[in-house]
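Target protein
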Amino acid sequence: MYKKDFVYQSQVKRLAGSSYYEVQQHALTIFHRIKHQTKRRPYIRSVYFNKQKVFFDYFWQHLAQKSFKERKRRLQFFACAIDLIQYSKHNPVSFDNPMQLQEILHRFTGRSKDSLIFYVQIKENKKTNQKYFMSVFPE
């Protein structure tokens, strides 16, 4: 279960669509807006990490490893996840990655505008101090 104090209330609803391709189209539209704000790697700035950049390098690769049904479930929360990363000041659950000792995993909890709980996972490299948006998934 989650603690109410650590849940970020998102101002965004889940992405609509009855199939993976409809949801993917909405998610890619949002991603292309972010992508066109920079000439280099796409990123968003996070309030929790003192306006540091959070990159998308691993998100799409991680999503491609899932089944179409699971991709649709996760992509529905893409807009909510972007909102959470940008504006959340709530403390995440942070722990060292057991597979890679030089990484810290931060797991934020959020609630979409239509009251569904979701989690956003961000990976932080200890050496470079860079953050990467890894995954979003519903409860």
